[in-house]
Amino acid sequence: MEVTPDERRAFVAAGAGISVLDVETIQNGVVPAILDRVEIPDCAPEAMVYHQPKPDTHYLYVAGGTLGLWRVQFCPALFGATPLACEPTYYTSPSATRAVRMAIADENFKRKRCVDLCIVPDNVAAGAPLLFALFASRADSGIGASELHAFLLDANGGYAPYGPSTPLEFTAPAENHPAAAATAITADPGDPNFVYVAPGKGGILRVDISTAAFQATKVSRPECALSSCPDGEAIRDLAVVRTATQGSFLYAAAEYAGLLEYRIPAVTLPAPDPSHPSMWTAQTLTGVNRYAERVAACTSGGDYIYVAVGSQSGSAIESDTPAPHRNRGHWNGLCIDWFRHDSNSLGGVAGADQVVLLGHDGANPSLPAYVVDQHAHAKWWGSLLLRRRSPSSYRLYECTSNGATVGRQLDITDGNHPPGIAQESWTTSGTHLDFAAAVGDGLVSLVNPNLVFFGPDGPASPANTEGFAFVIEPTAGGEDLRPVLGTDRLCASAPSASAPCGEAPNPYTIGLLQSAQWVDPFVPTREWFFSGDDLLEKWQSSCQAPASACDNPCEVLWRGVPTAGEETPANSSQGYRVAAMKLDDVDRDSLPTWMKWWQMETPSDVPSARADAIPYNSAAALPMLDAVGFPLLVAGVRSGSMHGIKLFRPADIRPRGLNDFCNTNQATPGVGEVLYQTTSGYPPHSEQISHPEFEQALPQADRCVPWVECAVQGIEQKPRTWYNSQCDFFERLDQQGNPRWACVVTAGFVAASPNAPDRAMPSAPANANGPQPSTCLWDEDYGRAIIAIYDVHDAATSVAGSPMPAPQLLRYGLGPVLSTYGQTHAWAVRTKYYSATGKTYAFVSDVLGKLFVYDISSGPGDPLSMATIPDPAVAYRGNYPVLAPVATISFPADAGDGFDINLTDIEIDGDFAYCALARAGLGVVDISNPLEPQVQLILDTPGLALGLAVRSKPGGEKQLVVGDSVCGVRIYGRTGTGNP
Length: 980
Description:
Helix content is 3%, strand content 38%. It is mainly β.
């Protein structure tokens, strides 16, 4: 967020756009007016700074993470007495949208990350304003340490590099962790000869810019407050203010030491003089019971200082990297935590952020700081600004990714600064909430290729609505994506999600994540979708009983289906949702003319104790159709269950759906019906276990004891070891050469605790659950990715309505041994048949940043040439060989923090595998030779590339549709014939 110096306009980044707000006249409780929205090439930029070189010239410079440094120029009409939005054509000039853009490294997927910037308006040596941009990188990343770039800005909008010929790099001091990556930069408003940089673990640096040579001196910092600090202290944010008579004060948000205050001497003498920066001492204004994350400061115009600090109850690093809702977030570890825990954490659990406004008398720095106000604000920090509006009023702007943008005003009525001020004079002036939902995976309509459906991977902000049907429209420049109005809820007349009664579940929301889809053979304009989602039931609060009729959603509540005999929703209530829509005439201004949906309980012949709470249920349709036109089979893959594959026949689903669920057309709010396994007419199904380490005890092998890394506060979370995420069908040959259908399922990782008493392992965790029974055959494979391959041909060719044969296990495949690549986690899968060799390969994503290739060919001497194992119930590791990868690609780790990127989805088209690499963007791999796949390029998307779908245009041209988190849905096309 950024605010103009005159306090009239604010700029807020939300997703792939910047909203320009009128904050001049907002009053208590009034939402700031949105004057304009500008599309930007980045997703939730790291920082922004406003610059006005001429009265009618308005620039916003943006630190765009891995997309570098760039700027937006706004039209003068936005800043007039009667503000007007800029004409759309105003933003089409490249010089207006990206005047500054830099590639720091020669490999586009290893660029350093632009994290912060500042402007020094009157530097004497330069004779013009200087723009400083801070680029972060681990010191041991292989592309160099964090570095500082400077640009000379002229009045006509030009810019030119300034400073040393080689950018100033910040290598980590010996006493600090080599992974130090810069976090913040700020200028001294009273001294244009210095800027201050927080190089991550390296404390604070004072950079002398009085000459173009630039010299950095380390500022002393207090010792970390923890008993053991192996990684040193990280400074998260900086601010400097200039008082009337007492000089400047530097404030630092320290990760573990709280808010630090330095009094900057008027004259700096050489070391070892106490006035030298290396000898400066800081006082702590807040304690270490919270984690300081953002700081902002201003003065009263005299010597009194106001300082705002944003902190959170969990460690800053933990809260800074939740995936997928942040453009720097990632999954890490076998349990797919949405954040990584800081090794120095004090044990706090990340909760609501807190903002504290302190008053401090600069003329009497020995006096303790006075708490003017403190309040909670939703977590995941974005920015914090504090401005003086008049001698008696101040405004604090808070912006977090989960808590909107809030402007709070402090009015001093008695003319006195704290401690004489009353807290009642602090008011919330206005709150602005942008639409910014995090888009995950999705698909393209089979009926209307101009419609795409992408489900969310969790909302960016809890208060946001979620609409995920998009229409592709032609524009003067090509094509554009626009949301279909109304798809954020079930029907136009239904109540909003904020209504007391809630709203019926929406088939567009999450329910289309990795769906199986097919065209209705009787109504060619109707399309069916089958996918996993939470299982909900209608509940009559007045009589405390389930609602059995299709009532108006406002007459009932929706709740998770409880376990037997309990009144609390059970995690095992995750189910499947079926939606049917007529999609031939949908545009962005209308809903489908016909839409119905229903939901059913996830089947399980041997129910799991609990199911994973994250709804990563997916489904795929077998590509072969029956005589009527239905796919022979759909396979549902369920996270949180040892029974990872569930088989259904669409021919069984359609009649049940058409007869039993409610219409949502026009003014009648529909509510899909819950269909339990115990009710009559439940579709026939079949399933198979996907985690052999958790088979029931058998004469040949005992059930293994799982080790659960991610148990929280003693809560048992065994099903988190039972991840299953995707599947793909392929054709194989039996021993007689007959074609048969098979399916490969990515089942996460082997989670048998590796501490069997007869198999001591150096890597065995100290807190493993064991001891393992000696007959557990999978504990030696702990932490290795696992896939399961099944023959589903008998189920696919069975008669609709009849009992369905169970899938027959063919093979398990494992990832590399831990000593080679460490822990691995099978997440996504696509298969490809090579006609030249007659072989089939499975391309499997390791969600921790690798691509595995498995040979799943069938025929004499091939891996799947063995007959189906006679008794799949005893298909444990000892009676057949497991498959190993025939090729592996490791994608580069993130240069900013060194952690692995995430491979979350795969699509194959021709000789190329397209890989969703989360924060690294989109990877393209040449798989023309599956034994030697080659990375062709990695295209850095603005957000987190989480899901992919291939779209075929009417003329046959292929496009790739990408779910790019809070940057929305993006379409990419090929550069030419045969090129990726």
